[in-house]
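Bug report

Summary: structure tokens for ABC transporter ATP-binding protein differ between web form and batch submission.
Environment: batch mode, default settings.
Steps: 1) Submit the sequence below via batch. 2) Compare with the web form result.

Sequence submitted:
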Amino acid sequence: MSAAAALTLSGLHKAFGTVQAVQNVSLTVARGETVALLGPSGCGKSTVLRLVAGLERPDAGTVAVGGRDVTRQPPETRGVGLVFQDYALFPHLSVLDNVAYGLRVRGVARAAAQAQAREALALVDLTGLDGRRPAQLSGGQAQRVALARALATRSPLLLLDEPMSNLDERLRSDLRAGLRGLFARIDAGVLLVTHDQREARALAGRVVILRAGALVQAGPTETVFAQPATAWVAAFLGERNLLPAGPGQVRHVPETALQLGPGGPWPVVARQSTESGLVVTVAHALGPLTLTLSPREAGLLAGNTLRLSVDEAQVRPLPDDREQE
Ligand SMILES: Nc1ncnc2c1ncn2[C@@H]1O[C@H](COP(=O)(O)OP(=O)(O)OP(=O)(O)O)[C@@H](O)[C@H]1O
């Protein structure tokens, strides 16, 4: 199977001085699959991508692209398409020539390079803008040109490092929807680094979570979000209800376990209006529980109390590993 994988990383290590940036990371990305690398700032996400691209050399471990060991190859022979957050387009070249550039430097003849570039521009819905200069594009269009440039190489593996970080929220959500369709159409593997959990959930079939350079959990996206393996992962993914349960243990009460209506009433001890609704904390018998109420649900607040019960079947014990670093 691994011969068919777009990417196979085995036992990768990389230190910068005393900083262990990447520690024993192994993962595979199948063709046609999108995998998101998630983790807090400084956990080693960009370093993993740079090791795959050949911009850094690992201290130990191997990188195979399309079943070929490229650990000792320079970036240009690895067959990897890259889109970095500070993507640079050549200002003096047209959109078409920007996209064709990488093919031309690999020795593809001009007419063939332009045909492949047009095909890539069509994939990102930019047909008709071939003749424009980068300065005549919106931020979202320029971002799609950078993507088309990576797609045009027809690499079996695309690496995207925070590909939408320069865009505003509306453009990001438009582009997210477009990318999901695009990734489904091309048969490449995609390794995506993002800070944005919505981006990971929208685009990736699997997620890999890094902490201080080491892989702490990997699995199908919805499984990892629904069943974080430890308290640290749960907290990183935004879970708020981790109740102390003895030494080194917490009880994870997911928000889906909180059922409004029966139970209580419990006193509301904190409330705050946010973009997604009214966030309230109730003093439940199990401990303080925080949940977000939609405007309609906020109508269930009676004075300063809320009726809710906990579906115990969804409550899971987790090891509390939040202190170790
Ligand atoms: N060239 C370098 N020299 C020294 N230290 C480095 C170098 N590149 C990265 N590091 C360190 O390695 C660790 C991992 O960095 P990396 O950029 O991979 O993290 P990241 O998860 O991508 O972070 P962010 O989300 O903030 O971009 C950090 O502690 C960083 O300071």
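Above is the batch result. After comparison, the two runs are identical; trailing whitespace caused the diff. The pocket of adenosine-5'-triphosphate is lined by residues 16, 19, 21, 39, 41-47 (CB under 6 Å). Residues 5-226 form a domain with the Rossmann fold fold (CATH 3.40.50.300).
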